[in-house]
TrEMBL record, chain A:
Protein name: Small ribosomal subunit protein mS29
Single annotated GO MF: structural constituent of ribosome
Short name of any one Pfam family annotated for the protein: DAP3
Annotated family: Belongs to the mitochondrion-specific ribosomal protein mS29 family.
UniProtKB/TrEMBL annotation, chain B:
Entry keyword set: Ribonucleoprotein, Ribosomal protein
Entry keyword Transmembrane helix: no
Pfam families per the UniProt record, alphabetical: Ribosomal_S13
Name by which UniProt lists this protein: 30S ribosomal protein S13
GO molecular function, one term: RNA binding
GO cellular component: mitochondrion; small ribosomal subunit
Length: 473, 125
């Protein structure tokens, strides 16, 4: 044995004794050759080299087989048609884990429009909740599912709206009026909730309520449309949407419409009994969607006869109806939303070119989420705001922006109801309600209220709810 | 099943998708046809009225689609070949027609350039 081999053996033994296999053979040639003074043990080196080259498993041997996208027919059961949409649209209005608020009282007919409840949280009566559900006034993004039952804060803007509604009813002098307003305000400031409060008051006062819950659904070309025969320029009716709206009207205004009967035979292409109620009329449109637009017109004519209740005509997400819709005309040009019959009907009353003879409110709400930018609408609202709040500082039209003349014309003399943040007292009231519901576990004092009010960007109610109820720190 | 121009489609098929199955109708043509008959883009065949389906069928039968269109394209190619043009020869050989290099990447030419372009077509019922 030469001396160099001896050193090699010695180095290997000393470097990694454990990794070295027990020396079975005394022969030097049988041991694997490794480089001198390498710190990698011979066994480790060979194991690494063999990676991925393992022999195929023996026949009959079970191997581990984990596939990522393995389909299991038993697990992946397809949901029934409409099931996923129903789950997506489900509205939860109560939380059994929240405490019952002892002091919470409901709004009622006699005091619905009075201003003495300003700054208090008031419950919505069950019958009205059903009606509001029928007209899809509750939104999923609102926090109804956190409390025992639906209740809202009567804020300053709510009393302003109530005041407008009592003017519409005729007030002291008894002359009904048509009030037209657009609700504006920052994101999460409670525009849709104020609209809901308006609907609530209208239901309580037994008005006829017609609500278009989201204008996007009319214009996004998801329902049938057809040109209206004999219209010049061509208007387009949407039979499915109108039929759905009629069914909502019939369901929500059940009591009012059942008590009213038609004054004259309605001009509709379906048979109708001579002294039928208005509810029957609406239901005729639901049963025959192809006649739904003419039924809607007939119903509107009946509702505007003398002696009928005032009308609350409301629409959320206004910007969608102030531009071209996704529908196409026969020559493959986009149809302007104002050419859709239902929208043109709404816009006629919103612009004030027609008035409600029995009084009523035409209420539209803008939205700050999922809404298109319509420069003509934004400008019209800026002008309206400036007229009301700062007449010396009128905005100028940016000539580089595209103007939609139809939008500017219809919003020429509109008024806005601007929704600002809550006052500290209102914030305190709603925070106390959160605490009484058990959803907020903190001592409610001035410091706490001020902190939350400031965190919520000076009383933005949506942010306030986020900061105090939804967010758990 | 809804019968559209001699072909059966399940009722839940989108009208647009059904139209696009025909050789010669793509997204734009389908959109144009649907706009002409006031069918909204998400309509399904089952929701159409019978009259609309008949109108669509009548409209489709006035158009040059499916086998008529295939025949026209094939005739154009055959004409080139019969004249003995370079383009005709390249079509017949399944090689690029418009001067592309053939060293690599001529899969589309191999797939498409043939005398019987577009296949033999579907059979109407």
């Amino acid at each position: 044995m030469s001396s160099s081999t001896c050193i090699r053996r010695f180095s290997r033994l000393s470097l990694d004794r454990t990794a070295h296999p027990p020396i079975a053979s005394r022969s030097l040639l049988a041991t694997p050759q490794t480089s001198c003074f390498s710190t990698t043990a011979a066994q480790h080196a060979s194991a690494q080299g063999k990676k991925g080259m393992a022999a195929a498993p023996k026949r009959g041997a079970r191997t581990l087989n984990i596939k990522k996208n393995k389909k299991d027919a038993a697990v992946a059961k397809k949901p029934a048609p409409g099931e996923r949409k129903a789950a997506r649209k489900r509205i939860v209005l109560s939380n059994n884990n929240a405490l019952e608020v002892e002091t919470l009282t409901d709004m009622d007919k006699s005091t619905a429009l009075a201003n003495k409840h300003e700054g208090q949280v008031k419950g919505i009566p069950d019958a009205v909740v059903d009606a509001l559900r029928a007209v899809e006034a509750f939104k999923r993004s609102q926090g109804w599912s956190m409390f025992r039952r639906p209740a809202t804060l009567i804020r300053k803007e709510t009393t302003q709206l109530a005041e407008l509604m009592s003017q519409a009813e005729g007030g002291e002098e008894g002359k009904p009026k048509t009030v037209r307003r657009i609700l504006t305000g920052e994101r999460l400031n409670g525009k849709s909730t104020l609209l809901l409060q308006g609907l609530t008051m209208a239901f309580l006062r037994q008005w006829v309520v017609i609500n278009i819950p989201d204008a996007m659904d009319i214009v996004n070309a998801h329902t049938e449309y057809a040109p209206l025969p004999g219209s010049q320029p061509t208007q387009y009716s949407q039979e499915t949407y109108t039929a759905t709206l009629l069914s909502q009207i019939a369901k929500a205004n059940d009591k009012v419409l059942s008590s009213l009967t038609v004054t004259a035979a309605p001009n509709i292409p379906v048979p109708f009994p001579a002294k039928g109620s208005l509810k029957q009329l609406a239901e005729a449109g639901v049963a025959n969607p192809e006649a739904s637009w003419s039924v809607f017109v007939a119903l509107w004519n009946e509702l505007t006869q003398p002696g009928r209740p005032p009308i609350m005509f409301a629409l959320d997400n206004l910007a969608h109806i102030m531009r071209n819709s996704d529908y196409l005309s026969a020559d493959v040009k986009p149809i302007h939303a104002h050419d859709l019959t239902l929208i043109s009907h709404f816009v006629t009353y919103l612009s004030g070119s027609k008035l409600l003879p029995n009084g009523g409110v035409v209420l539209a709400s803008t939205s700050k989420s999922n809404t298109p930018t319509v420069s003509a609408l934004d400008f019209s609202l800026e002008v309206a705001e400036a007229k009301q709040y700062s007449p010396n500082n009128m905005p100028q039209w940016n000539p580089y922006k595209k103007a939609d003349q139809r939008v500017i014309d219809c919003l020429k003399d509109i008024k806005v109801l601007k929704i600002a943040g809550l006052s500290k007292n209102e914030a305190r009231s709603i925070i106390e309600y959160y605490a009484a519901s058990g959803m907020l576990r903190a001592k409610v004092d001035d410091g706490f209220v001020t902190e939350k009010w400031s965190l919520a960007g000076m009383g933005n109610i949506g942010e306030l709810e986020r900061a105090s109820v939804r967010l758990r720190l | 099943m809804v019968n559209l121009w001699g072909f059966n489609f399940p009722e839940q098929t989108l009208v647009k998708r059904a139209l696009k199955t025909f050789y010669g109708i793509g997204p734009n043509v389908a959109q144009g046809i649907m706009a002409r008959f006031h069918i909204h883009p998400y309509a399904k065949l089952g929701t159409l009225k019978n009259a609309t389906v008949l109108d669509l069928t009548a409209e489709l039968s006035t158009m040059k689609i499916e086998n008529d269109l295939r025949r026209e394209v094939q005739e154009n190619i055959r004409r080139l070949k019969d004249m003995g043009t370079y383009r005709g020869r390249r079509h017949a050989m399944g090689l690029p027609v418009r001067g592309q290099r053939t060293r690599s990447q001529i899969t589309n030419a191999r797939k498409l350039n043939k005398i019987e372009r577009g296949g033999s077509g579907r059979v109407q019922m």
